[in-house]
UniProtKB/TrEMBL annotation:
GO CC terms of this entry: cytosol
Other observations noted: The reaction proceeds by a bi uni uni bi ping pong mechanism.
Chief location category: cytoplasm
InterPro entries associated with the record: Pantoate_ligase, Pantoate_ligase_C, Rossmann-like_a/b/a_fold
EC code: 6.3.2.1
Pathway of action: Cofactor biosynthesis; (R)-pantothenate biosynthesis; (R)-pantothenate from (R)-pantoate and beta-alanine: step 1/1
Entry-linked CDD domains: PanC
Residues given in the record as ATP binding sites: 49-56, 170-173, 199, 207-210
The name this protein goes by in its record: Pantothenate synthetase
Keyword Transferase: no
Keyword terms: ATP-binding, Cytoplasm, Ligase, Nucleotide-binding, Pantothenate biosynthesis
Length: 321
């Protein structure tokens, strides 16, 4: 065998199985068998809409770790029409299946499930859907009505089809991650949900498939989002209170020409309820904004420290040793 033939054979061996139908998926899943009752390897799934970037690949690498060396990693690539509202970018959403398959191969995927809408929704728009409840009515739910219901409906369907032991989601989509966790808990799904930290470019911008829509100038403007979140986190750590966290972050966003804010909120990380002004402890600072025609979301976990005496009572000095 020539060197070229050897290389090609190795690439074919490393390439994940690409399946498009339910029957092909069943065959691919059935081909994986555990080595015995004491083997701890698992099946892990990463659900994506394609147009993969380094943030997605971090999810796949973590899935490989969670699955174990003899486990199975499944990546789903499906642009879910239920997540898109009127006027959103369903038709122009970037698609590059061959490129995506090559990327996840290097990250350790075993199977890529890339169905068409008629495979996922064989009877057309589903009559029965999952409701995100009040989690889907705030923040993203205000600006994208029904979006979170569409997310949960397809996530539940894919979980039934793939039957994973563990599913991995990025923390950048914080509200989505919370909604998935609540669905799993409230509907008693036998799957572990693992959140993976947001991956950022060196300039601080959170990685997103929609970043490709930004011009160079717009990308520079978009850096205000991560800058605002960092400044808010610093206010929280300094014990200046929830109001100061929001005011500082809001000031940075308002001073950035070209940023149109949909929402900026400091919320309970377990419920997405806005925290009271006297809140201390963990919280989540979330932002959604438009830069040009591109809508971006980002978030930052913060820990609101208790105020010092000097901060709590204006004009009073902090106690001295």
């Amino acid at each position: 065998m020539t060197t070229a033939e050897t290389t090609a054979a190795a690439e074919d061996e490393a390439r994940p199985a690409v399946v498009r139908t339910r029957a092909e998926l069943r065959d691919a899943l059935g081909a994986w068998a555990l080595g015995g009752p004491d083997v701890t390897d698992r099946r892990a799934v990463v659900m994506t809409m394609g147009a993969l970037h380094e943030g997605h690949l971090q999810l796949v690498r973590r899935a490989r770790e969670e699955a174990g060396p003899g486990g199975q990693v499944v990546v789903t690539i499906f642009v879910n029409p239920l997540q898109f509202g009127p006027g959103e970018d369903l038709e122009k959403y970037p698609r590059d299946l061959e490129g995506d398959v090559a990327k996840v191969a290097s990250a350790g995927a075993d199977v890529v499930f890339a169905p068409t809408p008629d495979v996922v929704y064989p009877d057309g728009d589903p009559i029965v859907r999952v409701s995100a409840g009040r989690i889907g009515e705030v923040l993203e739910g205000v600006f994208r009505p029904g979006h979170m219901d569409g997310v949960l409906t397809v996530v539940l369907k894919l979980m039934h089809l793939v039957r994973p032991d563990v599913a991995l989601f990025g923390e950048k989509d914080a509200q989505q991650l919370l909604a998935v966790r609540r669905m799993v808990r409230d509907l008693d799904l036998d799957v572990e949900i693992v959140g993976v930290p947001t991956v950022r470019d060196p300039d601080g911008l959170a990685m997103s498939s929609r970043n490709a829509y930004l011009s160079d100038d717009e990308r520079h403007v978009a850096l205000a989002l991560s800058r605002a979140l960092r400044a808010g986190a610093e206010e929280a750590a300094a014990g200046r209170g929830a109001a100061a966290v929001l005011a500082t972050a809001s000031g940075i966003l308002n001073d950035a020409p070209g940023v149109v804010v949909d929402y900026l909120a400091l919320v309970d990380p377990a419920t997405v309820d806005e925290v009271p002004g006297d809140h201390t402890g963990p919280a989540l600072l979330l932002v959604a904004a438009r830069v040009g025609t591109t809508r971006l979301i980002d978030n930052q976990a913060v820990d609101v420290a208790a105020p010092t005496v000097q901060d709590a009572v204006p004009g009073q000095e902090a106690p001295r040793d």
